Amino acid sequence: MSQEGDFLVEARDVVLSFGQTPALRGADISAVRGEILAVTGPSGSGKSTLLHCLAGILVPDSGEIRFDGRRIDTRSEAERSALRRDRFGFVFQFGQLVPELTAEENVALPLLLAKSRRAGALAEARSWFGRLGLDGLEGRRSGELSGGQAQRVALARALVSRPEVLFADEPTGSLDSLTGEHVLDLLATSVREEGTTVVLVTHEPRVAAYAHREVVVRDGKATPLYLERPVA
Ligand code: ADP
Ligand code: MG
Q: What is the total count of domains within the chain?
């Protein structure tokens, strides 16, 4: 077990309401470096809201969010935005590729936003295509990709800047189960190779099986499930 303070990402007693709707009612969650943490629970329980708080997208009404030991919920939007750009990666349910860009331009986007030179960013982006079984798809636009291909492109885009934390919200939710397994295998392999910490939101038990640890969210509160697998 880790000592307090060893956590890479941490939420303590987080409360957040959308108007009259309470989404989080004192949620606690934390992940150590290098672990895949699954966040499970029924639809509407607060999983996405908790993920968005951990990632500095939403600021809670009360409670504390820490990244690498430091509060982030007290920082400005500009500081949180820079943190997201430089140290976090994101994958969402429907990949959310930019339709006007090719697959390789989509993957290169985080590097370009961080002001890398275009040629270098595209070369780095291309190096992910082979790793994720996407060879030959570099020039396609999102409308010319299958759901599983698009989600692997989204995974490459999330990993290309070598984030310390990958936040994934129902990343296989739009895929059939076999395609979903393939995407998860690639995610698990890539993060193991890179030492990435992953916070993986899902309502599917088979997805949670990829995690080292699982936390269940119900009615805006998070409870750890003691099914710990050691971090490889
Ligand atoms: P989950 O991801 O577990 O399905 P969410 O975190 O999306 O749950 O939602 C938690 C609660 O907050 C739900 O009652 C949901 O309807 C509400 N909620 C989430 N996002 C918003 C929003 N932008 N505006 C209003 N209510 C929201
Ligand atoms: Mg959700």
A: 1
Q: What is the pLDDT of residues 97-128, one digit of tens each?
A: 999 999 999 999 999 988 889 999 999 999 99
Contacts of 78 (CB under 8 A, 6+ apart): none
Tens of pLDDT along 53-97? 999 999 999 999 999 999 999 999 999 999 999 999 999 887 789
- Please report the DSSP string for 33-86 in residue order: TT-EEEEE--TTSSHHHHHHHHTTSS--SEEEEEETTEE-TTS-HHHHHHHHHH
User: Residue 191 sits in a domain of what CATH number?
Assistant: 3.40.50.300
The yes-or-no verdict on residue 131 having pLDDT over 90 is no
How far apart are the CA of 77 and the centre of ligand 2, in A?
22
Domain with 188 in it? 4-227
Instruction: State which of 21, 58, 170, 218 you would mutate to test the pocket of ligand 1, scoring each by most atoms of that ligand within 8 A of its C-beta.
Output: 21
Give the ranges where 88-117 is alpha helix by DSSP (H): 103-113
Ligand 1 pocket, residue 20 CB under 6 Å: no
- Distance of alpha carbon 68 from alpha carbon 144, whole angstroms: 39
In a domain, 184, yes or no: yes
Residue 88 identity:
F
Ligand nearest the Cα atom of residue 92: 2
Q: Which helix (H) or strand (E) holds 169?
A: strand 165-169
Nearest alpha carbon, ligand 1 atom 13: 44
- Of 49, 54, 57, 215, the residue with max ligand 1 atoms within 8 A of its CB, to mutate for a pocket test, comes to 49
Range 150-179 average pLDDT: 92
